[in-house]
Structure formats: structure tokens, C-alpha cells
Amino acid sequence: MKIVSYNVNGIKARLPRLIEYLAEEAPDVVCLQELKSSDETFPEKDVRDAGYGAVWHGQKGFNGVAILARGEDPVERRRGLDGEDDDVHSRYLEADVGGLTVASIYLPNGNPVPGPKFDYKLRWFERLAARARTLLAEERPVVLAGDYNVIANDDDVYSVRAMDSDALMQPESRQAYRRLLAQGWTDSLRTRFPGGGVWTFWDYQAGAWQRDAGFRIDHLLLSPQAADRFVDAGVDKQFRGREKASDHAPTWVRLR
DNA sequence: ATGCCTGTCACAGACAGA
Predict the structure, then answer these.
(1) Where would I find the Endonuclease/exonuclease/phosphatase domain in this sequence (predicted)?
(2) What's the CATH code of the domain at A31?
């Protein structure tokens, strides 16, 4: 089965690309981020007409995550993370689908550094790690898919120098990601491409796509029980080059 | 050092993104 993480950067503006993606690639599970849509305006009918059941956790204007499943209704397990009662950002959604547990994750960007947004990013990371630990203890196949807003290694970015002072590359961000992996998660893209040089995001600005000036921030982490079923991983890069594309490309893992 | 580009909301330009 093909499981996808896709930051759509506005599901309303991206709906033609998303429907096209579902039709062409027929993924089994799709985790969406940055819906920029309230719960009420989620295009449920369009998604259903494309053959997908869905659960979503929206927010007007920004954030927002969803989980889509082909020919199946995902069974929601959780929305949001514990640990910060006044946090209203829609950034975490978890569901059971196709015999797996899948989470759609939209980690805070964290810029500028230093500042309250960066502090929020690091706190959110710890709250995610706490949830991840609980999921690992269930000893089931789990996929944590999303936009982590972390460039984990120097070979995950076109230019270390260009991104050096960015929140995505700070040592604290990388350490938080490594601590999460160290619980026992497998970074599926890294497993498939251990030498790096694979991007999932290209900025809209400064001709980044044309220059192939990208980086890898969309990750699919596998529990040991999911990693045992690993077949392949990759990026559907061609969708970044189309009309009215998201600045992220769909990123996927295939499991037996 | 700054803006580059795009989407949203709302109807001009600020905010958010990364």
C-alpha cells in the first residue's frame, strides 16, 4: 500500500491538483497538511467523488490536517496533542486505516529564531514525542506522516549556508527530530536514499524550483512493525512542476 | 540587508509560510 504525505498549501486552491493526484497515483492513504480551511469548508464531496473517505481537523486561514483513504473511511483516534490546553492550532490528526495507525502532522515552522514561535515549535515537538512514545508501546504498524519543518541533515538541503540561520536547521530542531527517531522510528526516505540529495519542498521565490534549490522536510516515520513491511519510498516530484502547484511535492512510502 | 512568491481573508494589504 502507498501512503502519502502532502502539504497542499491551501486545499481550496489545490483541489484540482489533489483530485488529479488521487486519480493518477491511486494512493491508499493520503495525509494532508496546511488545508487553510475550516471544518465547514473542507471539500468533502469532491474527495468522496474521487473515491476517498476522509477525516479532517481544519482551521480558518492556516494550519489544518486531514487523512484520506481509498474506498474506506478512516476511523479517527485523536485530534490535537496533550500538554498545552490553550493551543488552538490544528496540527495533529490520527486515525486507524487499512490495518495501520496513521498520523497527519504539521509541525510549526518556528521562524524567526530566536522568538516565541521557535519556542512553540520545540514545545510542540516534545508533545509529539510523548504521543509517539505511547504509539510505539502499542507495538502495531504506525506511520507518522507530515511536514516536520526540520532539515535533519546537511545533505537534505541544496545549500547549508542559505538556510543556516533558519528555524528548520537549528541544532535544537535537529536534536528534537533525532530524539524522536531514537525512540525506534525509521525515516523511510532516509532509508531509501541514505546519501541525501532528495527534496520535498521548493520555495515559490527566487526561481527555487527551476534551480532545483529545495530541501527535505516532509517525513514518513515508521514504527518497527511498519518498517518490517517497507518496500520503497520516494517523492512524486512531477506534481511540483505543474500549474498552480503546492510548494511541497507528495512524498510517499510503500508497505507490504 | 531586503525582497523574491503564494494563499487566505476580504476586498487593501497584513499575516503566514519556509
Answers:
(1) 4-248
(2) 3.60.10.10
**Domain encompassing residue A115:** 2-255
pLDDT digits 0-9 by tens, A6-17: 999 999 999 999
* Catalytic-labelled residue, pool A21, A28, A92, A147: A147
Please identify residues in chain A, positions 176-235, with a C-beta within 7 angstroms of any atom of strand B. 201, 203-206, 215, 217
Q: Report the number of distinct structural domains present in chain A.
A: 1
pTM given for the model: 0.97
Residue-wise pLDDT for A152-182, tens only, equals 999 999 999 999 999 999 999 999 999 999 9
Nucleotide nearest A89 (Cα, C1'): B16
Cite the DSSP H helix spans in A140-223.
Answer: 160-163, 171-182, 188-192
Residue A85 appears among annotated catalytic residues? no
